[in-house]
Amino acid sequence: MVELTELYQWLHSNGVLMFDRKLAFSNQRTRAIGINLCEDDTYGIFVDFSRIESRADEKATMLHECGHYATGATHKVSSRYDLIEKHEYKADKWAIKRALSPSELDQAIAEGCENIWELAEHFGVTEDLMRKAVSLYTYGNLDCKDYLPM
User: How many whole angstroms separate alpha carbon 106 and alpha carbon 12?
Assistant: First the structure.
């Protein structure tokens, strides 16, 4: 299980710039945006901390943004919807694999975590990310709405 401080340290060691910035140009659900700042691959993540509701929310948000950076799954604002969705999927998948392994999930279940909220609390992530993780490790995809109650 990765800790939030490890994510920030990893970003820093890779030269990713972090900005605490209100995201007035985005929809209200957006908590952070990663952007290639220059042609020399300088990358920045802009986080609107006023939209972060908890430590688990911050961790899930940062895992996702790290996923965009790590996989190179970035796109222009005007990109086609299918490309954006592909990049979001790739970032989520990376985030899940970084957040917890299948064996860690199995161990948590064996220790008595039976519900999504219990697993999310155990791993310090949001229920949304946990649903996707269970779906990925159980069914091989992130389509948790097809398998798990919301």
Answer: 31
Half-sphere exposure of 60 (CA within 13 A, CB side): 22
Burial class (CB in 10 A: 0-12, 13-18, 19+), 23: middle
Residue keyed to tokens 């990925």: 136
Query: What single DSSP character describes residue 50?
Result: G
Q: Is 8 exposed, middle or buried (0-12, 13-18, 19+ CB in 10 A)?
A: middle
pTM: 0.82
**What would the pLDDT profile of 88-135 be if each residue is shown by its tens digit?**
899 999 999 999 999 999 999 999 998 999 999 999 999 999 999 999
Cα–Cα dist 34/65, whole Å: 6
